Amino acid sequence: MTRTHSTLLSLCLLLAACQDTGRIKSATEADLVGSEAAGSAAYNQIVTDGIEQLLASHSAQHEGSAPMTLAVMGIENQGAEELGDWGPQLYEVISTSVNQSGRYRTVNRRMIDRVLSASNLRQDDLFLPAGRRRFVETLELESDPIQLLLFPSLTTGTTKSGRTSQRDTILTLHLIDMVTGWDDQFASKVRKEYKKSRH
């Protein structure tokens, strides 16, 4: 083997050794805890806890077993971390949690976005009675009207002490009655600790 071939072989082996690897995690394994951002462990916990407790509280205040239709609006992120690809996934997790509750069901997100566009409405306009009426009229679901609007928002608060910091991530869920405008609210929080290594 020539010196050139030996060098190329060594380089190929080095590159192969440095390649990233992946595997499928089992359903019983815990979510990965992110070292720099909230990640799976944080988001999945606050969404599941928040939706379950909000809908349980709302259902207890409204007797009967008839299903209630709600529209999940886009997630408002006021926190320090960019959501990135977590935005669409969080929306799906919220919608799935609502539909699995038994009494509540959601309207398709694409339909909601199209109706907002066609009626020239922003999400904030739905806090006004006139905006809600225009939204319902454009949607034209007379036989199965939307009764509730769900507005999720994320906020964060960070505390630092030397090389250690704690970030509290809060998911606030506002459940708005389409007719009265009354607001049922629930906030779910998860705390994460970060440590910077010495250089």
Separation of termini? 42 Å
Main sheet attributes: strand count, strand direction, barrel closure: 6 strands, mixed
Instruction: Kindly report the name of the CATH homologous superfamily of the domain at 77-157 and 165-192.
Output: ABC-type transport auxiliary lipoprotein component
Task: Provide the low-confidence segments as ranges.
Answer: 29-39
| Broad CATH class of the domain at 77-157 and 165-192 | Alpha Beta
In the CATH hierarchy, the third-tier topology of the domain at 77-157 and 165-192 is known as Rossmann fold
Helix/strand class: alpha/beta
Number of strands: 6
> Which overall shape is indicated by the principal axes computed on the Cα atoms?
globular
CATH architecture of the domain at 77-157 and 165-192: 3-Layer(aba) Sandwich
Radius of gyration (Å): 23 Å
The helix/strand series, from N terminus to C terminus, equals HHEEHEHHEEE
What number is the mean pLDDT? Answer: 77
Helix content: 25-40%
Report the portion of residues in β strands: 25-35%
How many helices? The count is: 5
Describe this protein's structure:
The protein is of the alpha/beta class and 199 residues long. The protein has a domain at 77-157 and 165-192: ABC-type transport auxiliary lipoprotein component (Rossmann fold), CATH 3.40.50. The protein contains five helices and six strands. The chain has helices at residues 3-18, 39-61, 86-99, 109-118, 129-139, and strands at 68-72, 76-77, 104-106, 148-161, 164-177, 183-195. Strands 1, 2, 3, 4, 5 and 6 form a six-stranded mixed beta sheet that branches. A hairpin with a 5-residue loop joins strand 5 (164-177) and strand 6 (183-195). Helix 2 packs parallel to helix 3 (86-99). The longest helix is centred in the first third of the chain and has 23 residues, at 39-61. It is globular and about 75 Å long.
